Amino acid sequence: MASFQKVFAIFVIISGSCYAEDLVSYDEWWGPEGSSPENDTSIRPFTVQFDENIITDLKYRLNHHRNFTSPLNDSAFTYGFNSDSLQSWLTYWSDTYNFTERETYLNQFPQYKTNVQGLDIHFIRVTPEVPSGVEVVPLLLLHGWPGSVREFFKAIPLLTAVDDDRDFAVEVIAPSLPGFGFSDPATRPGLGSSEMAVILRNFMFRLGYSKFYVQGGDWGAYIATDMCTLFPQEVIGFHTNLALSLSPVSLGVWALGSILPSAVVDSSVQDRMYPLLNIVEGLLRELGYLHLQTTKPDTVGIAMSASPAGLLAYILQLFSMATTRDNNNKADGGLTDTFSREELLDNLMIYWMTNSFTTSARLYSETFNIRNVKMGIYAMPTSVPMWSVHAKNELVYQSPTVLKFKFTNHIHATILDEFGHFLALQAPGVFAEDVLKAITAFRNCSINNICVHAS
Ligand SMILES: *[C@@H]1O[C@H](CO)[C@@H](O)[C@H](O)[C@H]1NC(C)=O
Ligand SMILES: *[C@@H]1O[C@H](CO)[C@@H](O)[C@H](O)[C@H]1NC(C)=O
Ligand SMILES: *[C@@H]1O[C@H](CO)[C@@H](O)[C@H](O)[C@H]1NC(C)=O
Ligand SMILES: *[C@@H]1O[C@H](CO)[C@@H](O)[C@H](O)[C@H]1NC(C)=O
Ligand SMILES: *[C@@H]1O[C@H](CO)[C@@H](O)[C@H](O)[C@H]1NC(C)=O
């Protein structure tokens, strides 16, 4: 097995280096045609404002819908969002969710916008006050779909806290991805994950950072992985709660491991990877939205933009499933077992207010296509130090043996026996602690050139 892996690794490195030039433009313009010949490099303060007219219209839509089709008996969430539990959400959103209070909540951190390659990028930036001798280090924190910067609100104070035991403190920089929430969408096709990686690197340059740490889950992980591959000089270390290698070698080793799982994965987490057929079947059952958005995001986007009930059902069903598959068997999807209604509705408000469902969903089509496969960035290895944390119910688990064909410097994997896909939202303490441990180890890599895990 080991020599087989080496041969494939060499193959990937060689094929990767064939592609390595001219992969992606570093200054492509994504804004409207002919706009801003003088590039605007300003950084402007921003506050979230829930427009009164939009709230009035939203409440009208929440209160005027046709009767929902009754669910089949005892189907719980297995056919999708169970309409028996939908009305309580709509009533809550319309009548109990306090728009004024939530707007204030969403403005608790300093926020800004700055224009990069024609797109206004919205971001939260929290800089800790530190005593002398403590270094402030920048962490780019990337959300995914159907999330937003709201996922990080409970983790941000923990991440930016100053601790006597550390000689550094973290400055959090959490942008809304282009096309998501308060960040502008592209005005032309082609803004996929790799192109976002370029935008976010240029964005960090704008803030004055030529070297930084990156954390990401979901799309944030995918984009950060591209950043590691394209910009190994800039990314000092990458922490992820969704370590994923789509490199053909990784996938091949995963598949071959079916013959002898113990060669590929530790027995304690073997059930997260095998039997492979069960894993694939489970993903096929749950990831229909992914195929839809990879092919026809604009069609589904029309419905999501017209109906807050539809948007809520579509997005919260995914929060339910991705937190634990067991939620499929609960009549209410188990949503409030894990999350507060406010935090889930805040996230929906970010999509609804900005009408950004369609532009966010396009990230799937712009990334999972022939053009990107030909670019081959996803298959190229990166030596940027990487630290992963694996929640029990994460959608995919890949062992270090599988990941190493993409991440040749994977320094540690934290295995969790609970929690799901939205780790920062569900378990901010666990999340923040793991990120801080990783940065401590990354600093060992970059400062002392010793790249090992402490414990
Ligand atoms: C504006 O930025 C683009 C890349 O984003 C660059 O190609 C162009 O030279 C810049 N123009 C000016 C006037 O700085
Ligand atoms: C909708 O549901 C209400 C309450 O169950 C019922 O009275 C009404 O007839 C239904 N409307 C239609 C069009 O089915
Ligand atoms: C579904 O459940 C309801 C209420 O428990 C019951 O009255 C009805 O007969 C059931 N329908 C079917 C087709 O089992
Ligand atoms: C909503 O929150 C604001 C600010 O906290 C408060 O003044 C107001 O009374 C609340 N409204 C309701 C209906 O509870
Ligand atoms: C840093 O490297 C030293 C030397 O190998 C090691 O003793 C220490 O545990 C490392 N610390 C971390 C956090 O990786």
TrEMBL record:
One of its GO terms (cellular component) is endoplasmic reticulum membrane. Its EC number is 3.3.2.9. It is a single-pass membrane protein. It comes from the Eukaryota. Keywords: Aromatic hydrocarbons catabolism, Endoplasmic reticulum, Hydrolase, Membrane, Signal. PROSITE patterns: PROKAR_LIPOPROTEIN. Residues 43-152 form the Epoxide hydrolase N-terminal domain. Pfam families: EHN. Catalyzes juvenile hormone hydrolysis. This is Epoxide hydrolase. It comes from Helicoverpa armigera.
